[in-house]
Each structure stands twice: as structure tokens, then as C-alpha cells.
Here is the input.
Amino acid sequence: MALTSTMLRFVIDLSDIDRGKYEKIELRVARHPSESSPYLLARLIAYCLNLTEGIAFTGGIDSPDEPAIWVRDLTGVLLMWIDVGNPAAKRLHKASKAAKQVRVYTYRDPKILLDEIGSEKVHRAEAIELFALAPSFISDLEQTLARDNAWQLLFTDGELSITANGQSLATELVAFTGQSSR
Here is the structure.
């Protein structure tokens, strides 16, 4: 008997000051049985920080040829490929050819991914944006995870603050492009 996905509900008050985006988001997120909590949380944070018209979760782990999240325009053109974790350089090469913009949100050591991108042939490697979430932040956020979740997410000047189910957490979102930090 196959295990089924677990549905988690999130009500998120988003304040992305850098982009001037202030919205209340209500999401029902399917968590695949093999999806780790850190992956789920990074996927959800990536969705919030890239909220725009045409954004959608994909089939995720069930669809290995798709990113975790994508942004498409009204004609279906893939504008942004958003991946989570430490995707292989070969996958990023494909993503860079398929989408105008590629972003990766990792909760692991970003140096591993940067080294792999630097040692492999990756189309437009210098344009790939990598955002590193501190593993301790993700671990602390994981402790607040429930079936029904209420978040207040604030992002400004590279600082990410989330109040999750009454617990406040903060971290720096470190950004890299190609092989350099910014």
C-alpha cells in the first residue's frame, strides 16, 4: 500500500519590504511521504520570497524533471525555475537553458553546490542565484511545524524573520551568484 501525501495548511502574513510586497497567503501544501521537513520549509520560504503572478508549486519530488517551484507567464513561458536543496550541476545546466532566471534555496552547505557548479559545464552559471538558509534556523523552524500553521514572514535587507505558531526566529539569507557571495 502506497503512502499518501500529508496536507499542511499555512496562513502567512507576508511582508517583503525589499520588493514592496505585503500579502496574506493561504496555502495547502502537500507533503510527499519522502519529503523531509527542511526541504518542505525551504520550498515554502522560496515560494513566499518569490511570490508573483504565475508562481506555482510543481509536482515536486514526484516530478524529477521539474523544479520545486516555477513561475510561468500567461502564455506558459517558463520565466523562473526555483529549486530547493543542492541540485546537481547537470540539473542546473538544464534549468538555465529552460528558464530566464534560476534560483536555488539551500539549507545545506552552499560551498558544495558552488564547487560543483564551478567544476562542471553549467549554462549561464554566473546568472544562477543561490540563497543559503542557516541549517540551525531551518531546524528551529521545523520544531514549530504543525498541520495548521500561522506565520508572519518579514524579509528586508537580507534578513528573514518568521514568527511561526507563536515562536519568533530570524536568520540572514546569504545570497550568491555564479561563484561569488554578495
User: Anything to note?
Assistant: The helical segments are 37-49, 89-98, 110-119, 135-142. The two ends are 48 Å apart (CA to CA). The mean pLDDT is 92. The first helix runs from residue 37 to 49.
